Amino acid sequence: MNITTTLDVRQIPPPQKHPTIFQTFASLAPGQGFILLNDHNPKPLYYQFVHEHAGQFTWEYLEESPDIWRVQIGRTESN
After folding, report:
1. Which of 27, 24, 30 shows the shortest CA–CA distance to 58?
2. In angstroms, rounded to a whole number, what is the distance separating the alpha carbons of residues 41 and 66?
3. Domain ranges, ordered by start, for the chain
4. Which of 19, 22, 31, 51 is the most buried (most CB within 10 A)?
5. 16-46 per-position pLDDT tens digit
6. In the chain, what is the straight-line distance between the N-terminal and C-terminal CA atoms, in Å?
């Protein structure tokens, strides 16, 4: 997985977080990914990815702590 950027959404207003994340995902070529930094577990975002992009993404927790969550999100090679 070629990581292209780190997206820190901790300071982004909540209504803009998911659209910003999905814009970043849409800009990825197959095999590329980004690191998401958030201040809480982005599990609802994961379910949105499953619903809207099933089979097109990878999701790997890199850090899970009370103050920061880091997740590597990627576009699969086949899409």
Report:
1. 30
2. 9
3. 6-50+69-74
4. 22
5. 999 999 999 999 999 999 999 999 999 999 9
6. 14
